[in-house]
Amino acid sequence: MKNKKQLVISIIFTVVSVAAPLLFCGFRIGFIFVDHVVFDSLCYCLWALFILNSFFLLAHLRSCIKKGKYLNKPLFIVNCSIAAVSAACCVAFFIIGKNDIRNFFFVSFETLPYLAAVYALVFFIGIFPLCGSVFKKCTAGFTAAACAICAAFVLPIGSFGFESAPSVFNTGESYHVVFATNDKSIGYISYSFGGKNYTVWDTTTGRKDSSTIHSIEVPYEHLNNNSYTVSAVRATEDIAYGGHLGKKIDYTVDGFTPCPDDGFDMTVITDNHETRVDWESVGKNADVCVFLGDIANGIYNYGSFTDNLIIPAGEATGGKIPVIYARGNHDHRGSAVKDMLKELDFDKYYYRVSIGKYNFTVLDSGEDKDDDNYEYAGYNDYASYYAEQTDWARKLEKQKGYNAVIVHSAEVFHSSEEEKQPIGDILKELGNEFMLCGHNHSAEFVSAENSKTGIPYYICGNYVGKKDLNYTVMHFNEGGITIKSQNTAGDEICSAQVNINET
After folding, report:
1. For the segment 291-314, what is each residue's pLDDT rounded down to a tens digit?
2. Of 166, 301, 167, whose CA–CA distance to 231 is shortest?
3. Would you say 378 and 298 are in contact if contact means Cβ atoms under 8 Å apart?
């Protein structure tokens, strides 16, 4: 009986020791609280200790099974203490960052398979041969199931389809029709215009892109008040000499309606941070949808922007009305940020969109802290980026009509020290009298007197929970803007009336 209890204890601590380094590694990447050099060095030392501890405990377990004997008690106590401390660290990080638990899976996805393979190899070489027949049969069944699941991810098994409806982004120069599929594919759009049939593929320098996300540029006049079909062909194999394509799927949008020149309704969504709501209901009755950024906690992989921008935009609009997107500070974070820019096929995230007499300057407010902030780990170089954006804004010409700014944060307008003129002053010179923004996780109007730039702005809401969202509906009519923020149940959160002058 005593040996059985010790065996159970050994198994428990073995499991803890294996799980601890994986969890701790993921959380330590996701949450940085102290000096990077010290913290990173400590974590690498702990990582090495945890790995060693795992092998010690596996050896201990092998000894238990084989001879019923145990390694010396001091070694057992030390290793169990290390495992207990690592488990406590994991629990602490989980409590501190419970809203970002999925970050662990994103940042450790590439290393998990290799670590799992190492532990599996040690198990099958050192322990499996000593186990009983019943345990071996159960293990064999579990291993077969695991292999089948892995094969399902590698091989094109299962149905092939669209993740959501397409969405039509207005980039200031043309439309970009964006859609996603649940497996790699090549994609295109087809439509008729001026008596001619068009088929436009998603390509890069002449080669069709094999991806789960497609963005296809279409001229304004080709899509306005027109129907179109997006199609995708499954890419089962893409190699240097050859390859194979599979099933073809289509999605037809019967009538894309451009935003009216005046008297239009704008639905503004901001700081959704991975919220899951009825997006179709949120976009109901809108003439244009605006996403003001912070779509997720970070852009760790394709799913980060597929699930939190492309799918919501498609469901909210059905591909029938235009979408405008301004990038938030959390949309700058993560290793897949460059993939997001490439897959959306935007030249840049600052541009100007005109709707009738309304001229919207869309800006990228970037990160909300200085480049040397410890949170950025030395990766940020936004001083140069802000200087480029400021230089772009300085070259803009003042346009006649009603001028407003679309930006994630109205208070974050960084300029390099060499800049003689802050971008806020440039915006006022261009005739901008109002900004719609997010970032502050609230719904409220801020007057010109309380604005750092001297331009009044309205904060358009934020997520309330994983299944609730505060968003804003604006009605534009002859320079007057009627504003109402509400939750997904339709309850009013805040309202305002703003008037901007025609220049």
Report:
1. 999 999 889 889 999 999 999 999
2. 166
3. no
Distances (CA, A) of 29 to 26, 94, 138, 291: 5, 13, 35, 28
The pLDDT, as a whole number, for residue 385 is 87
**Residue 409 φ/ψ region, left for φ over 0, alpha for ψ in the -120 to 50 degree band, beta for the rest:** beta
Structure tokens at 76: 């057992």
**pLDDT tens digit string along 175-229?**
999 999 999 999 999 999 999 999 999 999 899 999 999 999 999 999 999 999 9
User: Among 234, 222, 150, which Cα is nearest to 186's?
Assistant: 234
- Please give the span between the terminal C-alpha atoms of the chain, in angstroms, as a whole number: 88
Q: Has residue 48 got a pLDDT over 70?
A: no
CA–CA separation, 282 vs 468, rounded Å?
11
pLDDT(483) > 80: yes
Contacts of residues 368-372 at CB distance under 8 Å and 24 or more positions apart, as own/partner, are: 368/329, 368/409, 368/412, 368/439
Residue 187 contacts residue 231 (beta carbons within 8 Å) = yes
Class of the domain covering 159-256:
mainly beta
What is the overall mean pLDDT for the chain? 82
What does the domain layout of the chain look like in residue ranges?
Answer: 2-154, 159-256, 259-499
Q: Which of 159, 171, 158, 166 is nearest to 187 (CA)?
A: 166
Q: Please give the structure tokens belonging to residue 203.
A: 């390509």
pTM over 0.70: yes
Measured torsion, CA atoms of residues 396, 446, 443, 403, in degrees rounded to the nearest 10? -30
Give the span between the Cα atoms of 408 and 40, in whole angstroms. 32
Under the banding of pLDDT at 50, 70 and 90, the label for residue 457 is very high
Q: Token match 């990766």: residue?
A: 379
Token code pair at residue 298: 């970070």
CATH level 2 (architecture), domain 259-499: 4-Layer Sandwich (3.60)
